[in-house]
Amino acid sequence: MSVSDPLAELSAAGVSVWLDDLSRELLAGGGLEELIADRHVVGVTTNPTIFASALSKGNRYDAQLRRLGGAGTSVDDAVFALTTDDVRSACDILRPVYDRTGGVDGRVSIEVDPRLAQDADATVVLARRLWEAVDRPNLFIKIPATRAGLKAITSVVAQGISVNVTLIFSLERYRAVMDAYQSGLEQALTAGCDLSTIHSVASFFVSRVDTEVDRRLDALATPEARALRGRAGIANARLAHQAYEEMTAASRWQRLAAAGARAQRPLWASTGVKDPSYPDTMYVSELAVAGTVNTMPGATLAAFADHGALPAGPPKAGDHAAATAHLEALERAGIDFEDVTDALEREGLAKFEASWKELGDTVEREMRSETTASGGQGGSREDGGSEDTDLLAIYLNDHYSGATGGLELFRRAAQAQKGTQAGEALSELARQIDEDRDALARIMSDLGVDIRHTAVAMGWLAEKAGRLKPNGHLFSRSPLSDVLERESMFLGVQGKAACWRTLRALADTDERLSVDRLDALAERAARQSTTLEELRLAAVTRTLRASGSQGPSST
Questions:
Q1: Which of 140, 214, 348, 396 lies at a CB distance of 3.0 to 4.6 Å from 109, suitable for a disulfide?
Q2: What 3-state class would DSSP assign to 373?
Q3: How many C-beta neighbours within 10 Å does residue 99 have?
Q4: What is the pLDDT of residue 541?
Q5: Binning pLDDT at 50, 70 and 90, where does residue 523 land?
Q6: CB 232 within 8 A of CB 327
Q7: In 146-220, where does DSSP find H-type helix?
Q8: How many CB atoms lie within 10 A of CB 302?
Q9: Residues 405-423: pLDDT tens digits?
Q10: In this predicted structure, what is the pLDDT of residue 156?
Q11: How distant, in Å, are the alpha carbons of 94, 138, 182 from that of 99?
Q12: Can you give the pTM of this predicted structure?
């Protein structure tokens, strides 16, 4: 019997499978080579958030940070050195793919400093500096698709630099991106450049559109609005692909193609499902269109490898009309889609700037601590560690492990109640729990505490083992499942609240901890507890009282 390989099928359907993640752990441990060999990965994308996360994992950056700190390197230059080194290594690992595909795949993307997103000239200068520092032909320079970014895209492409245009949310902006790319190619052609050496992708974001639209639909609180949830991202992406097809059929592009130009492929970004009530592979399956790229976070890649499925057939003639009809229905419901995409661009830039600051702060802190450690200071034990720090690391890792298992429980409960008011409430709670876990990870990073992934894995496995239900069956649900799950979730949130209070007490003497942030997290935990208690009592009423009303059975 043949073994199913959904990612192989996706690749055979003409979709390039890229990974939206990179870290020195992945590079040094052979993980990227395994993904190329076993998961059909043919490209890698990065962003400031990914690099900020990578620096918090393991200790593979320590030696370089020690050298940089000892040399008195500035924070910006240290960030530049760390990120370009990682991307250069990834380019080398993916070089055979680049050669095999004639430069189409085997690509690695690195983003310009997001603080320059509104400064076209500075973006161009940094793009050139990154291109020369990495010095690999399979590099993509990522430039945000702001209005200033459009000018930078044209200028960079005209210099023969391959570009990944990112943070595209609206059809209007996507058309402007395609125009900017073609303008750059035309200038490169006039300058005598070989157009076949210039490549580009346009990263069109998907799941974030649904997150924002669904939030606004939920605020309307009508049955008609609820019926429109979860379809805006895919509809918007399908219309983007239609715009791409129109561009490639136009005479302007045909002239460039005849001169050797490479098409700017659509890349589906933000393909991790944010709402646990939706299928976790929907942004891959629904957008499996030949000639496109899908860049997936690790969890989405693993999910599709496990149970992904391709659509029954190629895109249908009515898909574009249905997508247009859906966006029109949103407008009739009161959703200003232009305002949605404008808000998402602002939010995306703000998140990347925050991640860049977090990255810089972490680099500065680590360089300072590494320099101090090399001078023989900073530890009370013989091995140079601190017993108090070790105890705090154990404490926080226990909570992080519990948060990982708890998140799985919330997501599973939301899926089991899909389509009900309880399911909607649990989905929102799952989203908040995910954000709280990220907040804990940032606090751990601020405190210099590494996440111990073995403990995290054990927390996840413990939750999976907890699927043995009171009726004695694995995975199937018993009548008591809702009650017991909600009790477990309530206790988990209470434990999380205790963690926030513990850190709040430490914040009085530790300036690395934000009092305001911890107070806000504690207040949110209190609201979560209230919601869960209401859901628990509703389940008790529905299950236990209904059972008791039947009276004792006769013997």
A1: 140
A2: helix
A3: 12
A4: 85
A5: confident
A6: yes
A7: 147-158, 171-190, 207-220
A8: 14
A9: 888 788 888 888 888 888 8
A10: 98
A11: 9, 9, 25
A12: 0.70
